């Protein structure tokens, strides 16, 4: 039997770069479906979406600002490299969500299918970011810290925060919208909970 632990090695900077770009692009693409359907999502992205809907402010700018307080925790608990990668990821996503509509126009997507697409795309995107040592800041930082420090699964931590966020959204948006939004969030967080396993993933 091969001892995989002895073969563990770090990603190169090129591998990290492509992983971060891929992850942020997948999340940005998922957000295009989400905003087209008028859905909301979880974590700090969900908070930024709600603020953007209610105020009309650009999502990218709101998302960037909402994440600023969490960088202190990232720096203190997760390290300089993780913090820098997360800042780069948030900045890339903030720009991508503003640029994608110029090249992508959606005409018709059913809410149920759209919710599944949002969950799958953003789940895959976040998984790529986590595996390359980054995040989209906010609750993702807290979730990763709790998983590494106490063994709590990051996906379940995020799902708990999302439940609180959607409880608030239930008072602001129609029930059907909240239901489909919650469906997408469940898909996203289950992808993270099942697949983000440091004991299974060799390269870090």
TrEMBL record:
<dbReference type="InterPro" id="IPR051461">
    <property type="entry name" value="UPF0750_membrane"/>
</dbReference>
<feature type="transmembrane region" description="Helical">
    <location>
        <begin position="150"/>
        <end position="171"/>
    </location>
</feature>
<keyword id="KW-1133">Transmembrane helix</keyword>
<feature type="transmembrane region" description="Helical">
    <location>
        <begin position="20"/>
        <end position="40"/>
    </location>
</feature>
<dbReference type="InterPro" id="IPR003740">
    <property type="entry name" value="YitT"/>
</dbReference>
<feature type="transmembrane region" description="Helical">
    <location>
        <begin position="86"/>
        <end position="106"/>
    </location>
</feature>
<keyword id="KW-0472">Membrane</keyword>
<protein>
    <submittedName>
        <fullName>YitT family protein</fullName>
    </submittedName>
</protein>
<keyword id="KW-0812">Transmembrane</keyword>
<feature type="transmembrane region" description="Helical">
    <location>
        <begin position="46"/>
        <end position="74"/>
    </location>
</feature>
<feature type="transmembrane region" description="Helical">
    <location>
        <begin position="177"/>
        <end position="194"/>
    </location>
</feature>
<dbReference type="Pfam" id="PF02588">
    <property type="entry name" value="YitT_membrane"/>
</dbReference>
<feature type="transmembrane region" description="Helical">
    <location>
        <begin position="112"/>
        <end position="130"/>
    </location>
</feature>
<dbReference type="GO" id="GO:0005886">
    <property type="term" value="C:plasma membrane"/>
</dbReference>
<keyword id="KW-1003">Cell membrane</keyword>
């Amino acid at each position: 039997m091969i001892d995989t632990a002895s073969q563990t090695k770090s990603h190169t900077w090129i591998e990290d770069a492509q992983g971060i770009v891929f992850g942020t692009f997948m999340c940005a693409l998922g957000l295009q479906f989400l905003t087209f359907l008028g859905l909301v999502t979880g974590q700090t992205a969900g908070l930024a979406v709600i603020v953007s809907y209610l105020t009309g402010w650009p999502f990218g700018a709101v998302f960037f600002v909402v994440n600023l307080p969490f960088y202190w925790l990232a720096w203190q608990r997760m390290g300089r490299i993780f913090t820098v990668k997360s800042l780069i990821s948030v900045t890339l996503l903030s720009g991508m969500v503003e640029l994608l509509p110029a090249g992508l126009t959606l005409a018709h997507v059913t809410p149920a299918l759209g919710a599944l697409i949002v969950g799958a795309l953003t789940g895959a995107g976040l998984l790529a970011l986590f595996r390359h040592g980054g995040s989209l800041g906010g609750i993702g930082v807290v979730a990763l810290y709790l998983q590494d420090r106490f063994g709590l699964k990051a996906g379940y931590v995020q799902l708990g925060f999302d439940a609180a966020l959607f409880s608030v959204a239930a008072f602001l948006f129609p029930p059907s919208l909240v239901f489909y939004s919650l469906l997408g969030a469940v898909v996203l967080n289950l992808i993270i909970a099942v697949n983000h396993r440091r004991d299974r993933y060799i390269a870090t």
